[in-house]
Design brief:
The protein has 132 residues and is an alpha+beta fold. Helices cover 24% and strands 39% of the residues. It has one domain (2-130): Alpha-Beta Complex (Nucleoside Triphosphate Pyrophosphohydrolase), CATH 3.90.79.10. Strands 1, 2, 3, 4, 5 and 6 form a 6-stranded mixed beta sheet that branches.
Length: 132
Protein backbone atom coordinates (compact mmCIF):
# COMPACT_ATOMS: atom_id res chain seq x y z
CA UNK A 1 0.00 0.00 0.00
CA UNK A 2 1.25 3.48 -0.83
CA UNK A 3 0.37 6.58 1.15
CA UNK A 4 0.73 10.17 0.02
CA UNK A 5 2.45 12.74 2.19
CA UNK A 6 3.37 16.40 1.75
CA UNK A 7 6.25 18.68 2.65
CA UNK A 8 6.37 22.44 2.18
CA UNK A 9 9.33 24.77 1.95
CA UNK A 10 7.96 27.73 3.90
CA UNK A 11 9.97 30.84 3.09
CA UNK A 12 10.15 34.06 5.02
CA UNK A 13 12.51 36.11 2.91
CA UNK A 14 15.57 33.93 2.28
CA UNK A 15 14.97 31.78 5.38
CA UNK A 16 13.15 28.43 5.51
CA UNK A 17 11.10 27.15 8.43
CA UNK A 18 12.22 23.85 9.94
CA UNK A 19 10.52 21.95 12.74
CA UNK A 20 12.22 19.65 15.21
CA UNK A 21 10.43 16.34 15.85
CA UNK A 22 10.28 15.11 19.42
CA UNK A 23 12.20 11.99 20.39
CA UNK A 24 8.95 10.03 20.63
CA UNK A 25 8.13 10.64 16.95
CA UNK A 26 8.10 7.62 14.65
CA UNK A 27 11.15 8.93 12.78
CA UNK A 28 12.93 10.01 15.95
CA UNK A 29 14.29 13.42 16.85
CA UNK A 30 15.30 15.27 13.69
CA UNK A 31 14.48 18.39 11.69
CA UNK A 32 11.81 18.43 9.01
CA UNK A 33 9.67 20.70 6.89
CA UNK A 34 5.99 21.21 7.70
CA UNK A 35 3.62 18.75 6.06
CA UNK A 36 2.17 15.33 6.62
CA UNK A 37 0.06 12.43 5.46
CA UNK A 38 -3.08 12.75 3.38
CA UNK A 39 -6.31 11.36 4.79
CA UNK A 40 -8.43 9.05 2.68
CA UNK A 41 -10.24 11.08 0.00
CA UNK A 42 -8.49 14.34 0.96
CA UNK A 43 -7.25 16.61 -1.85
CA UNK A 44 -3.48 17.05 -1.55
CA UNK A 45 -3.61 20.86 -1.25
CA UNK A 46 -6.14 20.45 1.58
CA UNK A 47 -3.71 18.04 3.26
CA UNK A 48 -0.95 20.62 3.09
CA UNK A 49 -3.09 23.40 4.55
CA UNK A 50 -4.47 21.17 7.32
CA UNK A 51 -1.02 19.95 8.27
CA UNK A 52 0.40 23.49 8.35
CA UNK A 53 -2.41 24.66 10.62
CA UNK A 54 -1.83 21.64 12.89
CA UNK A 55 1.98 21.88 12.94
CA UNK A 56 2.75 25.60 12.81
CA UNK A 57 -0.55 27.35 13.48
CA UNK A 58 -0.95 29.21 10.20
CA UNK A 59 -1.99 28.80 6.56
CA UNK A 60 0.80 28.99 3.99
CA UNK A 61 0.46 31.81 1.46
CA UNK A 62 -0.10 30.70 -2.14
CA UNK A 63 1.32 27.16 -1.90
CA UNK A 64 2.61 25.85 -5.21
CA UNK A 65 3.36 22.29 -6.23
CA UNK A 66 7.07 22.18 -7.10
CA UNK A 67 6.72 19.06 -9.23
CA UNK A 68 8.85 17.09 -6.77
CA UNK A 69 7.84 13.50 -6.17
CA UNK A 70 9.92 11.50 -3.74
CA UNK A 71 9.44 7.87 -2.80
CA UNK A 72 10.48 6.22 0.43
CA UNK A 73 9.57 3.37 2.75
CA UNK A 74 8.90 3.70 6.49
CA UNK A 75 7.57 1.01 8.84
CA UNK A 76 6.51 -1.38 6.07
CA UNK A 77 4.63 1.32 4.17
CA UNK A 78 5.55 2.97 0.87
CA UNK A 79 5.14 6.74 0.62
CA UNK A 80 5.00 9.29 -2.16
CA UNK A 81 6.12 12.71 -0.96
CA UNK A 82 4.70 15.67 -2.87
CA UNK A 83 6.78 18.83 -2.45
CA UNK A 84 5.35 22.34 -2.20
CA UNK A 85 6.78 25.81 -1.78
CA UNK A 86 5.01 28.77 -0.14
CA UNK A 87 5.54 32.01 1.70
CA UNK A 88 5.02 32.01 5.44
CA UNK A 89 2.73 34.77 6.69
CA UNK A 90 4.05 37.26 9.19
CA UNK A 91 2.53 35.32 12.08
CA UNK A 92 3.98 33.56 15.09
CA UNK A 93 4.80 29.86 14.79
CA UNK A 94 2.67 27.77 17.15
CA UNK A 95 4.11 24.27 17.40
CA UNK A 96 2.11 21.06 17.69
CA UNK A 97 2.88 18.52 20.40
CA UNK A 98 4.83 16.52 17.79
CA UNK A 99 7.52 19.22 17.65
CA UNK A 100 9.65 20.75 20.37
CA UNK A 101 11.47 23.52 18.49
CA UNK A 102 11.68 25.43 15.23
CA UNK A 103 14.20 27.58 13.39
CA UNK A 104 14.36 29.84 10.37
CA UNK A 105 17.44 28.75 8.45
CA UNK A 106 19.36 29.49 5.27
CA UNK A 107 20.27 26.78 2.78
CA UNK A 108 23.79 26.67 4.23
CA UNK A 109 22.48 26.29 7.79
CA UNK A 110 20.18 23.47 6.70
CA UNK A 111 23.18 21.52 5.39
CA UNK A 112 24.49 21.13 8.96
CA UNK A 113 21.17 19.90 10.43
CA UNK A 114 20.07 16.33 11.00
CA UNK A 115 17.21 16.44 8.52
CA UNK A 116 14.66 13.68 7.86
CA UNK A 117 16.02 11.74 4.83
CA UNK A 118 12.91 12.34 2.71
CA UNK A 119 13.14 16.09 3.37
CA UNK A 120 16.88 16.10 2.65
CA UNK A 121 16.12 14.61 -0.77
CA UNK A 122 13.42 17.24 -1.39
CA UNK A 123 15.58 20.26 -0.48
CA UNK A 124 18.49 18.90 -2.52
CA UNK A 125 16.23 18.50 -5.55
CA UNK A 126 14.71 21.96 -5.05
CA UNK A 127 18.11 23.66 -4.83
CA UNK A 128 19.32 21.91 -7.97
CA UNK A 129 16.17 23.02 -9.80
CA UNK A 130 16.77 26.62 -8.69
CA UNK A 131 20.29 26.50 -10.13
CA UNK A 132 19.09 25.50 -13.62
Amino acid sequence: MQRVTTAVLLFRGEQLLLLHKTKRASIGACWEFAGGKARKGEHIEDTLIRECIEEVGFVPQEPRDTGYRGYFRHKDCDYELIGFVAEAPDEAVVLSEDHDDYIWASYDEIEALELAPSDRAFISWFRSEQEK
